[in-house]
Design brief:
heterodimer; A: 117 residues; mainly beta; 4-stranded antiparallel β-sheet; globular; B: 114 residues; 7-stranded mixed β-sheet; 53% strand
Chain lengths: 117, 114
C-alpha cells in the first residue's frame, strides 16, 4: 500500500480554520484519498474522500494537489468537538487479490488535532 | 438507521483462553472488516468478509479467525490468547461494492488479556 506522511500533532483555536496536510508522493492512479478521524474513546469516523478534484461535504473540504502527491483536509471553523486523531489513507481501488477486496484501510499514525477554546 | 454494534464492549480473559467477538453491521451492508488497535501498532487490518466469504486478510497469525453469517453479522475468534492480544477490536461495515465505499466503524470491544 502506498504510504502517507502526516504531522504528529497540530493545534488550533476554536472557530478558526484548520488545514491538515498529508503527503503521499508514491500515490498511484487508482488510489483514492480518504480521511477518517477518531474521537477519544470512539471508533474511527469517515470524514471525506476524493480522487483528483477538490471535494466538499458538510464536515470538511479536501484539497488535492494537481500532481496528487499531497492533499489537505480543511476544517472551516474548528470546534472543540473536532479534537481527534485525523488519518489520511490511500485506498487502492484497482487491486484485487484473486477475488479479494479493496476495502482494506491501512492506517498510519495520524495527526492529533488539539482545539483550544 | 442503527449503527454498527459490537458485543461485548469489554472483556477480560487469561492467557491461553479463547474469545469470540461479535459484530452486527448496518442494515443492508454486506461487507464487514475487523481491525485491531493498540497503542504501539495503531490500527491494523485483520480481515474482511463479504457475502460470507473472506475477501482479504491482514498480517496476523492463524490464531485470529473470523466468519460471516448469511445475515451479514460477523464474528471473530482469537484462540490461545497472548498478553499482546490485549487491544481494542474494531468492526467496520460498508456496502461492499463500488469504488469508494466509506466504512462505518463500531465502538469496539476492549479485550484485556491477563
Amino acid at each position: 500500500d502506498a504510504k502517507t506522511t502526516q504531522p504528529n500533532s497540530m493545534e488550533s483555536n476554536e472557530e478558526e480554520p484548520v488545514h491538515l496536510p498529508c503527503n503521499h508522493s508514491t500515490i498511484s492512479g487508482t488510489d483514492y484519498i480518504h480521511w477518517y478521524r477518531q474521537l477519544p474513546s470512539q471508533g474511527p469516523e469517515y470524514v471525506i474522500h476524493g480522487l483528483t478534484s477538490n471535494v466538499n461535504n458538510r464536515m470538511a473540504s479536501l484539497a488535492i494537489a494537481e500532481d496528487r502527491k499531497s492533499s489537505t483536509l480543511i476544517l472551516h471553523r474548528a470546534t472543540l468537538r473536532d479534537a481527534a486523531v485525523y488519518y489520511c489513507i490511500l485506498r487502492d481501488v484497482g487491486v484485487k487479490n484473486s477475488g479479494g477486496s479493496n476495502y482494506k484501510l491501512t492506517f498510519g499514525k495520524g495527526t492529533l488535532l488539539t482545539v483550544n477554546p | 438507521k442503527a449503527g454498527v454494534t459490537q458485543t461485548p464492549r469489554y472483556l477480560i480473559k487469561t492467557r491461553g483462553q479463547q474469545v469470540t467477538l461479535s459484530c452486527s453491521p448496518i442494515s443492508g451492508h454486506r461487507s464487514v472488516s475487523w481491525y485491531q488497535q493498540t497503542p504501539g501498532q495503531g490500527l491494523q487490518f485483520l480481515f474482511e468478509y463479504f457475502s460470507e466469504t473472506q475477501r482479504n486478510k491482514g498480517n496476523f497469525p492463524g490464531r485470529f479467525s473470523g466468519r460471516q453469517f448469511s445475515n451479514s453479522r460477523s464474528e471473530m475468534n482469537v484462540s490461545t490468547l497472548e498478553l499482546g492480544d490485549s487491544a481494542l477490536y474494531l468492526c467496520a461495515s460498508s456496502l461492499g461494492q463500488g469504488l469508494s465505499n466509506e466504512q462505518f466503524f463500531g465502538p469496539g470491544t476492549r479485550l484485556t488479556v491477563l
